[in-house]
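Consider the tokenized backbone below.
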């Protein structure tokens, strides 16, 4: 980056989001962390990242299923950091269940966090980005933004929605220096996937090792999990000058899954 920027990364207290926040901070961006977890551990990570990267690091514990809480988080970013220049919508949850048993409240929660929250953060970040003539929005989608798997109706619907939202915002921001893209990882070994493995094992009557081998990695021809650091590297490329003409793209990091 040629100019100091502020990046807000949702779901950045662990997993992919944490790796992205660390990569951006290492590149010189101020960072706002967002997510849930142990308060002391989050503060320790925040302070350590600020000290090691020499940047300002903030934190918001906003409930991203609550539009008012999102508005408060974005207002905080405006007051404390002058606005969000780089927005990464990464927060997400998963539930695995046959459609006839899928709890309606789980559907509502997954759509709210995985899709609707991105709508709210983008609509609140866009005025600042347009005004300054530069902005980068990255949505963490999934291979499930492009293909489906059984028992994941809400997640697949939300991620397909993220793909459509990404393309729409890419068109709206194109002439204002704003770029919007989605990263579509295959299976990344994160706390979210750990929980998914357990849920899938239960729903399919399999062991967790069988789920890893025969369900998750069966979809990825490389037979390897994607790493959080690889996703972070793609995000860093998308906000660099080399990524300036990438807009509205679904950037696959899936070991060849979608090539089937």
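A designed sequence for it:
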């Amino acid at each position: 980056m040629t100019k100091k920027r502020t990046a807000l990364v949702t779901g950045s207290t662990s997993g992919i989001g944490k790796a992205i926040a660390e990569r951006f901070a290492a590149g010189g961006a101020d960072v706002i962390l967002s997510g849930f977890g142990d308060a002391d551990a989050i503060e320790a990570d925040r302070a350590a990242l600020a000290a090691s990267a020499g940047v300002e690091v903030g934190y918001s514990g906003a409930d991203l299923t609550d539009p008012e809480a999102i508005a408060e988080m974005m207002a905080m970013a405006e007051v404390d950091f002058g606005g969000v220049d780089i927005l990464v919508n990464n927060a997400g949850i998963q539930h695995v269940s046959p459609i006839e048993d899928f709890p309606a409240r789980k559907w509502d929660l997954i759509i709210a966090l995985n899709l609707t929250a991105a709508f709210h953060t983008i609509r609140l970040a866009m005025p600042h980005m347009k005004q300054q003539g530069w902005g980068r929005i990255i949505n963490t989608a999934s291979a499930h933004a492009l293909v489906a798997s059984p028992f994941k109706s809400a997640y697949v619907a939300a991620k397909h929605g993220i793909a459509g939202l990404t393309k729409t915002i890419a068109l709206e921001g194109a002439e204002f220096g704003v770029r919007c893209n989605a990263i579509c990882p295959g299976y990344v070994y994160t706390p979210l996937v750990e929980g998914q493995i357990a849920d899938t094992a239960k729903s399919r009557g399999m062991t967790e090792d069988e789920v890893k081998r025969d369900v998750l990695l069966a979809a990825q021809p490389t037979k390897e999990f994607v790493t959080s650091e690889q996703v972070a590297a793609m995000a860093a490329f998308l906000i660099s000058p080399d990524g300036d003409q990438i807009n509205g793209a679904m950037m696959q990091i899936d070991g060849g899954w979608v090539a089937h």
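Strands lie at 6-10, 30-34, 57-60, 86-89, 135-140, 178-185, 250-253.
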